[in-house]
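Let's sit down with a protein and look at its sequence and fold side by side. Which protein we use is up to you, so please pick one and set it down. Label the sequence line and the structure token line clearly, so we can match residues to local backbone shapes. Go ahead whenever you are ready, and we will take it from there:

***
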Amino acid sequence: GYDCYQNALAERVNGILKNEFLLYECNTISELKQLIDESVYVYNHVRPHLSLNMRTPAEVHDSYLCPA
């Protein structure tokens, strides 16, 4: 079923991709795919998130898999 909160999350992620990562126009679909792949990697592994106490999503995920 449709949940309006799911759309809000998708719109937030799309906005972050457009405003922070996809800053130039790609000439081919393969360029766009590569740029999106790099952007998702940076978002998950490099960019700290305030809501995660300045940790990356990957760090938080890994901490649940292997608690210290």
